[in-house]
Amino acid sequence: MANNVKTFLNSKGKEKISMLTAYDYSTAKIMDESGVNAILVGDSLGMVCLGYKDTLSVTVDDMIHHGKAVVRGVKNAMVIVDMPFMSYEVSTEKALENAGKIIKETGAHGLKLEGGLEIVDTVAALVRAKIPVMGHLGLTPQSVNVFGGFKVQGKDASDAQRIIDSALALEKAGAFSIVLECVPSSLAKIITEKLTIPTIGIGAGADCDGQVLVWQDSVGLFPDFTPKFVKKYAEIGSILTEAFKTYDKEVKSGEFPEEKHTFKISEEELKKLY
Prior knowledge:
By secondary structure, the chain is of the alpha/beta class. The protein folds into two domains: 5-234, Alpha-Beta Barrel (TIM Barrel); 239-271, no CATH class. Helices cover 42% and strands 14% of the residues. The protein has twelve helices and eight strands. It has helices at 5-11, 25-34, 45-48, 60-72, 92-106, 120-128, 144-147, 157-173, 185-194, 215-218, 236-253, 267-271, and strands at residues 17-21, 38-41, 78-82, 110-114, 133-138, 177-181, 199-202, 210-213. Strand 6, helix 9 and strand 7 (199-202) form a beta-alpha-beta unit.
């Protein structure tokens, strides 16, 4: 069954929502066939695909390029694309322009925006324009310079209350779901219980309505850093390393390619070349 805004909302309190990031056709196709409910084309691609130190350098064109590839590989999962840094902060008009461009050119089903009370008007405008919006609170990577690094948010009462107020405001503005990243699990539980829309946790505990992970983290494919909240379901990185080493060895030794990997021309045709 195809996943969409309605299936997300109907899952609240009934069935957990699974979401993973993806940035290319092949990976998205495998995820879709695995039954994952949603695929997030995150601006995390800046770090895990493009090698940036953070997500701030990612552009609208980057998101469109990768978003198109993911959508082509998906039949049932809901595809959400991140709006990158400074693509929606300048003005509501600019946000609408960029959001429309991303949706039209990728074919994605919705967009994710980072921020709380300060972006409520923008979220409401996108929703009025019939663009489904997923919110994102807590550790919002586009605010890394404000936070002083990738740090857990909501650990004191005032900050926790700010996140709660932002979640309620985003719901009122029309967001269909909210990602809660790197917040105390008890705070995530309070927010989840207060909202009528589903929460998707990443480092926010088991009480959220769903979970999301960066897929490279979840299979051991991003060696630079592994967050505390990540569970590794495979060690693909080490498997690939061994495969690449074996390939290198066999090429240099002449073991590859073998006869079965080659194509032939008939002796009669071959003689015509001499």
